[in-house]
Task: structure prediction
Amino acid sequence: MSEIAVVGAGAWGTALAVLAARRGHDVILWAYAAGLAAEIGRARENVAYLPGVSLEATIRVTSVLEQAAAAPLVLLAVPAQHLRGVCRTMAGHLRGTPALVICAKGIEVESGELMSEVVGTELPGAKVAVLTGPTFAAEVARDLPTAVTVACADAERGAAIVAALGGATFRPYLTDDVIGAQVGGAVKNVLAIACGIAFGRGFGDNARAALITRGLAEIGRLSVALGGRPETLMGLSGVGDVTLTCTSTQSRNYTLGVALGEGRRLAALLADRITVAEGVPSARAVAVLAARKRVDMPIALAVDAVLHHGADLDREIGAVLARPFRSEVERV
Amino acid sequence: MSEIAVVGAGAWGTALAVLAARRGHDVILWAYAAGLAAEIGRARENVAYLPGVSLEATIRVTSVLEQAAAAPLVLLAVPAQHLRGVCRTMAGHLRGTPALVICAKGIEVESGELMSEVVGTELPGAKVAVLTGPTFAAEVARDLPTAVTVACADAERGAAIVAALGGATFRPYLTDDVIGAQVGGAVKNVLAIACGIAFGRGFGDNARAALITRGLAEIGRLSVALGGRPETLMGLSGVGDVTLTCTSTQSRNYTLGVALGEGRRLAALLADRITVAEGVPSARAVAVLAARKRVDMPIALAVDAVLHHGADLDREIGAVLARPFRSEVERV
Result:
């Protein structure tokens, strides 16, 4: 695997391209917009999404998806709601069956599908793996220590992906639970909005810790209902990613929640941003999926109600925090 | 249970006394030092440990342990390393067999015992429960939303404790896993020091999230070796408390770690503080216990080596972060 393609030139895709280049690979970085591709290629920097990071000379930037689709290893780093469209476009251009590594987190709103299900439908027979975990792109790009989960049903292919991307400061750990590894990353942004709201409301750190704990239990229930294994939740893709996203002001979703908690309006907040707060569409997707699978997810439903149904923020958060006393342990 | 005694007048004991008083109980708050007891009683405020919080008129402050020992419900909130001595003094003064709720977190260094084991040895036949979870005392005293674990082998007694202390903003959840509920709170301070060191070293949020995740796995292994149940770790006493302690600058242990990571010396840091950074003795206790039970706990051992054996900080942290790639899931 000397050539690696990264599909998606946001912060995460760009950081992955830099990571792969530093590991000695020739990299093709694909951007949707021709203008952005040209600008990144000229500046040797993704000023809009990952400022301050120089692109290695071995990174070639393109907006021609066909070029990326020809690589033997393709990292998919487009926003969750755009993955299906990109896969459809790629379908005609794949050369053989490349290894596809899903690096996007989320649930497709329209279908309620996980990213692996979207790819499986659009690129049947594709060799799919998932890379996830607690990863702020800017820190990966700065070579700060980072540990991730690589989930792959085929142990040999998983090990090859680990070998291709792993290094002294970027540590991938393998699992074969492809479903379970995706659920934490998909739902955490919804939980991060809840934690942000609580913080913005001045509820304090105890309340946030309680929300994280109860939120993880929700995520575990959904994961098991979708076919994931409970113990996967204890790993980097679950506890690790949730902790990161729910406690750091670097998280777009957490800071969105804080602003909401402080009384700002969603529409105004979204208009201010060029980057996607994935938790906003995800809240809708999680609520639909929870209903379909009959999974009890009060925190996610509260966030969905506040974001998408005009529910009163104090009443929703109050209801979550005042749930009746009951047994601590829920088998997830 | 109209009368409740709180043994220990640090920040946590004082906050528990205020909580119990607001729930309508007559409270006896015991302080070790007669001078402190007199000062708190006079000022109606614990200026040294919980400034800014007025004590209800129904709180009586004393330094006579006999008075506290006579209550039907006694909350034990002394530092972990002092619990045995306090229990010995109490032994002659208990009236019948009061319900004892251990609110101290830690492992006794000398014996390697959990708090429930210490109490069990010194007060044989005592009716013991544990109250633990993500609880900054100052937030509880301000009536901010807080959820805790109450662990009790006897469901009826546990429910009575929940009823006595629970309210709109203080939410206890029951478990019968008395051992498992203690391990998170006992080891989290060691992990918080590790996370602080990583932050102080400038390693970033990804590294901290990885440390929290791997640290929780360590805690789970120790808990199971001591007889706790794995799923308890997912609750407030595990994930909740660890998350709180490892991500907030309100945590004494985390801030101690940050200062160490920034290059300050342990002795100087400890001399500056009046409150106990419980993780310092706990690191020793955990290391001893891990060796005795043959449990793999590389993060705790690294913290112990740095704090107590003059080990090089960068080498220890580097070794933890650079452990070989392996399977993500460890059955805890």
In short: The CA atoms of residues 115 and 267 of chain B lie 27 Å apart.
